[in-house]
Write a structure and sequence with these properties.
Helix content is 15%, strand content 25%. By secondary structure, it is α+β, with helices and mostly antiparallel strands. The strands form 3 sheets. It has a 6-stranded mixed β-barrel with strand order 3-7-4-6-5-8. Strands 10-11-9-12 form a 4-stranded antiparallel beta sheet, with helices on one face. The longest helix is centred in the C-terminal third of the chain and has 15 residues. The two termini are 21 Å apart.
């Protein structure tokens, strides 16, 4: 079964005994996704400061401090409408388009990670990006804020494959011991965006021809997934997603909604073996009264 993700109501921190298999999951592969007009890309104001998100496909680089999200926000909605997972390789940025992808490089070590921008923040003047716990772990910076360089991956970089250049990723990067008291992490805690989450665009909204319809906080990593539901209506599958996210934490390594053809599919995963996936499926069936199906993504 996947690692339990526990929360503390007043402070953030790393997951208890984080799963190394999930922390080492494949990075999201950038794809051309339409930049929404409005929604999470509307101008907004936080703490008296106004921000205007970029809505064009433009290069962007920035250098500054990175912080990270922890278990306090696991399962909560991001500004994009997607659920945050400590195990997803995602990040929050004040003005980069949602959705978009970025390369984040740890200045001191040279380690890099590709993340999907799906949230707003941080709102601390010296910080430029809030990483998911998994992304911070990949860079080896879960012990506190660290200096990074952020480079947006443009549509042309994706089309040409240029984004693949010599990325230095180290899944074995040292992470904080599971027994560490989250209270010592005050320097690493992100300023979370107090922005009302915006819904993911409905399937009937126009999208660019090159766009992939999947909507999840990471790309569909290879491995075994447990499909909990396949519904024609997005609101129905999102209600089930919220129910599981709030009440059934042990079932959340990754909880994602994928749109395939005319169906919205709620899936758990990825699991490293078919046996693990079937064990999760049996547990889900007994708790949720659903008939899950195990599928393999190659």
């Amino acid at each position: 079964m996947p690692a339990v993700v526990s929360r503390h109501p007043d402070r953030d921190g790393p997951p208890v005994n984080p799963s190394r298999d999930l922390l080492g999951a494949p990075a999201p592969e950038p794809r051309v996704e339409p930049i929404r007009v409005g929604g999470p890309n509307k101008p907004y104001t936080v703490l008296g400061q106004s921000y205007t998100p970029e809505r064009e496909d433009l290069p962007f680089t920035e250098r500054g401090l990175a912080s990270w999200y922890g278990t306090r926000f696991h399962g909560r909605r991001t500004a994009s409408g997607e659920l945050y997972s400590v195990y997803g390789l995602t990040a929050a940025h004040r003005t980069l388009p949602i959705p978009s992808y970025a390369r984040v490089r740890h200045v001191a070590s040279g380690r890099e990670v590709i993340v999907r921008i799906n949230d707003r923040g941080p709102f601390h003047r010296e910080r430029v990006i809030d990483l998911s716990y998994a992304a911070a772990d990949r860079l080896g910076i879960t012990g506190g804020v660290s200096e990074v360089e952020v480079e947006r991956i443009t549509f042309e970089d994706i089309r040409s494959g240029a984004w693949r250049r010599g990325t230095v990723m180290d899944p074995a990067a040292p992470s904080m011991p599971g027994g560490t008291d989250p209270g010592v992490l005050a320097g690493a805690m992100p300023d979370v965006a107090p922005v009302a989450p915006q819904p993911i665009p409905a399937a009937t909204e126009p999208v660019a021809a090159e766009a992939t319809p999947a909507r999840a906080y990471t790309t569909a990593a290879k491995g075994f997934w447990v499909q909990l539901a396949a519904l024609a209506r997005r609101d129905g599958v999102e209600r089930l997603q919220q129910r599981i996210a709030s009440d059934l934490q042990p079932l959340q390594p990754l909880l994602a909604v994928f749109q395939e053809a005319s169906l919205f599919k709620l899936q758990l995963g990825p699991y490293g073996s078919r046996e693990q996936a079937h064990a999760a499926a049996r547990h889900a069936q007994s708790v949720l009264q659903v008939r899950p199906v195990v599928i393999e993504r190659r």
